[in-house]
Design brief:
Blueprint lengths: L1 E8 L2 E10 L2 E7 L4 E3 L5 H6 L8 E3 L6 H6 L4 E2 L1 H7 L7 H7 L2
Parallel strand pairs: 4-5
Antiparallel strand pairs: 1-2, 2-3, 3-4, 5-6
Length: 101
């Protein structure tokens, strides 16, 4: 099942996506600038193979719900997210998203 819902973060609306897969869930919270995602995201691909796209993205590990994703520390961020918006490892997901609002 795929669930897509608007989610309000301090008065700013983002899109929350949950894809239920066998033995795991794919979790994403995004806007038109960038997104945070569960551990299924391979940040290195964006930095090593697709750097010219300047993708603003980060991942958090061990999350099972959108709420956990928002409260989890980011485990890795793309170079573009770090350079353009100051995202860094350890930053809380919600705080990162508010920087791209």
């Amino acid at each position: 099942m795929i669930t897509i819902n608007p989610i309000d973060l301090d008065g700013i609306v983002f899109t929350a996506v949950r894809v239920e897969l066998p033995k795991t869930n794919l979790l994403i919270v995004s806007n038109d600038v960038g997104y945070i995602m569960c551990a299924a995201l391979d940040v290195a691909i964006f930095d090593e193979k697709l750097a010219e796209r300047e993708v603003i993205a980060a991942r958090a590990m061990g999350v099972r719900t959108i709420e956990q994703l928002l409260e989890a520390p980011l485990e890795s961020v793309t170079n573009a997210a770090a350079e353009k918006f100051g995202w860094h490892n350890g930053m809380i997901g919600k705080d990162a998203l508010l920087l791209i609002a």
